[in-house]
Input
Amino acid sequence: MKCPYCGCEDSKVVDSRPTDEGERIRRRRECFCCTRRFTTYEVIETTPIMIIKRDNSRELFDREKLTNGILRACEKRPISLDQIDSVIDKVESRIYSTMEREVPSKTVGEYTMEYLKDLDEVAYVRFASVYKQFADIHSFMTELQKLLDEK
Output
């Protein structure tokens, strides 16, 4: 495994354990050259899932794209990277459990919002504002009112 810090290709596994959902194996590694530690994930290779976008185009499910969206929504919030990883793992697990080879982007967004709502309301509203493409302040306020009504 190539070290992300120095590029050395020699490292050793220091710790190995399954993630919460058991879908991945998390490995802590230590570089032989610079002695810094980094984390890798081992994933079972699965059938690719195609995401059907709003314009009916299709693209492969990209965990990194989902991660970037969630990270932006959680920016400057008291949310740990482990909590973010947990949300991503849950969404990904749910997508694969549908047993469908094509999943609408709307479904991915709804799963993500569901888990973010439980984690942090501000992150939820941020993600929803991009995902739902609020056209004006009224649609934004409608979503906030729904959130308040649930409480």
About this structure: The CA atoms of residues 106 and 120 lie 20 Å apart.
